[in-house]
Design goal:
This protein is an alpha/beta fold and 606 residues long. 37% of the residues lie in helices and 26% in strands. The protein has 20 helices and 30 strands. The longest helix is centred in the C-terminal third of the chain and has 38 residues. The N and C termini lie far apart (138 Å).
Length: 606
């Protein structure tokens, strides 16, 4: 063997025994991961954004034990998670766990996302199912270097059954709040807590990834873990003044209702307004910076849609324009800004706030007023009455709160209520409006309510027995079952109607839904309108929004007002039918008049 042969053999042996190249997660993802053509607008080899690179490369930082992604949609979070799993399995190995909100979601994720990505990526396709168990199912995929188990968040045995080196819980805020064991029904704990315990066997080589768009203030688990970390924000440089600052919602230069095409990204330091092309240049040169100390090893990220290369300033402005009510503002806060939403803050008002709004002279109503409705909340010793007016513009007017004392099993309070229903209400343009519809709570003393309703209907008054029912799926009004086998109740979906009413009380500008208050309403009446809060609670492992009454304030007037608002559905439909009938009658009368005039003229000619 010549010296040359010996040298070449030595080089070959060194190459054979050389340890594999150590790549950053972002480098491995861009070199190895391919997006399937069938499910992606940009198929082929992955090209990560600057934000995505920082999000995945943090996994390789020596002290990182937990990665927290609290983001809006359109950030590419899912791709970052998938790439991290592939990098970790092929370079580090060991048992991995992926947790989705429930079993059906987990199965869909494997079928629609994971399997297509594995098939499109050679580094994964050539190794999946070739581990010790040769498994390639929807619940377990093994590799020569490790394995990936997939489960839903409700499955306690899968979460706490074995040790894992890496675990990823996606959409954490949609996962079970508390996991119960299948056999005993005993509480095992919150999913991320269970998973965290099973990572302890690997000590310093373990990694927990938690990702989600947040939900509500106080109950968002991703928001709580984000605050526990170093709270990294994505900083960009202004091309005008070189100021370096994070991408925050305040930087959207756009007013509600304006043309989204004119929206810009503002520099809060110099006021420069960057267009879409400038924003993209800024994002590609951006970087993540920690803004808090946080718990050791907990790295947390927050990014909103303004910081996404997959969205536009115009798309964000369009989302802002759509956020015209409470539910759409919740969607905007969670999915566009990537922040937890405080529902109660949007509908809370103090007595002082309402007193400042109480300027309406209920003796002569505005010309806008079109209908009057009444709601009656029945108690054992009284009837609480709310009188509302409804405008053609969609604005509302709270005219009065009347308490009718007396045992409701006797005739006295019912006679007083009947007197109120006979009233008319003058307007500034000379009309005198009767009460269009009345809702009487039939949840207490149903037989007395039925008797009253039948008597009032005998007077040709539109009076309806109502039953309030919770549930966000319910319509404002729906037909219910018969009460005492006589007349049908109207079911009021109190959750949505209450939300609509309280939104009107806090709406800052005039327009549909804005609620005026009569100057004559007492402070006690106004306090009752503030007597309930919308809170988010965990019920049977799921988040649920619930109205919680005050421990010290009565809510009778609020309940009566809710019934008066709901029954306007019926009043509005009845008026539409009445107006249409009047219109048809007027046309018919006109035809008769024209015909008579024609006949009279014909007789004169002859």
């Amino acid at each position: 063997m010549t010296a040359t042969d010996t040298l070449e053999l030595t080089i070959a042996m060194r190459r054979a025994f050389k340890p594999p190249e150590r790549l950053k997660p972002s480098e491995w993802i861009e070199r190895e991961v391919h997006l399937p053509r069938a499910t992606n607008a940009r198929p082929g080899r992955v090209r990560l954004t600057a934000a995505q690179k920082g999000m995945v490369d943090a996994a390789a930082e020596p002290d990182t034990r937990e990665l927290i992604y609290m983001t809006s949609t359109q950030i590419g979070k899912s791709l970052a998670i998938m790439g991290l799993l592939g990098w970790s399995i092929t370079t580090e190995g060991g048992p991995h766990l992926a947790v989705r909100p429930d079993e059906s979601d987990a199965a869909a994720w494997v079928r629609e996302t994971l399997n297509p990505l594995i098939k499109a990526t050679p580094a994964l396709r050539d190794t999946v199912g070739r581990g010790a168990s040769h498994s390639d199912s929807s619940e377990l995929k093994d590799f020569p270097t490790g394995s990936l188990a997939i489960t839903g968040s409700w499955k306690a045995s899968a979460l706490a059954g074995k040790s894992n080196r890496v675990a990823v819980i996606d959409e954490l805020d949609r996962c079970a709040m508390v996991v119960q064991s299948a056999g005993t029904g005993n509480s095992e704990g919150e999913p991320s807590q269970l998973v965290r315990r099973r990572l302890s066997s690997y000590r310093r080589r373990s990694l927990l990834v938690l990702a989600s768009t947040p939900t509500s203030v106080g109950l968002s688990r991703i928001a709580a873990r984000h605050e526990a970390g170093d709270q990294r924000k994505f900083f960009v440089t202004c091309r005008e003044c070189d100021d370096v600052a994070p991408i925050t919602p305040e930087r959207l230069a756009h007013k509600l209702g304006d043309d989204p095409s004119n929206a810009r990204l503002a520099c809060l330091a110099c006021g420069n307004l960057a267009d879409e092309a400038e924003r993209m240049v800024m994002l590609r040169g951006g970087e993540w910076r920690a803004t808090a100390k946080g718990e050791p090893g907990v790295v947390s990220f927050h990014l909103n849609e303004l910081g996404s290369e997959f969205s536009t300033i115009k798309a964000v402005a369009e989302a802002v324009n759509r956020a015209t009510d409470l539910e759409s503002r919740r969607v905007l806060t969670n999915t566009t800004w990537g922040l937890p939403f405080a529902a109660t803050a949007e509908i809370e008002a103090t007595v002082e706030d309402l007193r400042a709004r109480a300027t309406l002279d209920a003796k002569r109503l505005p010309a806008d007023v079109d209908r009057i409705t009444v709601g009656a909340d029945v108690q054992k010793s009284r009837i609480e009455v709310a009188v509302l007016a409804h405008g053609k513009s969609g604005e509302r007017y709270v005219l009065a709160h009347v308490t009718l004392p007396g045992d409701t099993s006797t005739d006295a309070p019912w006679g007083d209520l009947s007197s109120i229903l006979g009233r008319t209400f003058p307007t500034v343009d000379g009309r005198s409006l009767p009460i269009a519809a009345t809702a009487v709570d039939a949840g207490f003393g149903a037989s007395h309510v039925v008797g009253f309703v039948l008597r009032e209907r005998g007077k040709r008054r539109r009076v309806y027995p109502v039953i309030g029912r919770p549930g966000w799926h319910r319509l404002a009004t729906a037909e219910g079952s018969r009460i005492k086998g006589t007349i049908r109740a109207t079911v009021v979906g109190v959750d949505n109607v209450k939300l609509s009413f309280l939104q009107g009380l806090t709406r800052p500008t005039r327009g549909a839904g804005y609620t005026h208050l009569a100057v004559t309403l007492s402070d006690d009446s106004l306090a009752q309108l503030t007597s309930e809060r919308l809170e988010v609670k965990a019920t049977r492992g799921r988040l649920k929004e619930t109205w919680v009454p005050s421990a010290v304030l009565r809510n009778d007037f609020l309940d009566a007002a809710i019934y008066a608002l709901a029954i306007d559905d019926v009043a509005r439909q009845s008026k539409r039918v009445s107006d249409e009938t009047t219109k048809q009658t007027s046309v018919a009368d006109l035809a008769v008049m024209l015909n008579n005039a024609s006949n009279h003229q014909h007789r004169r000619v002859h």
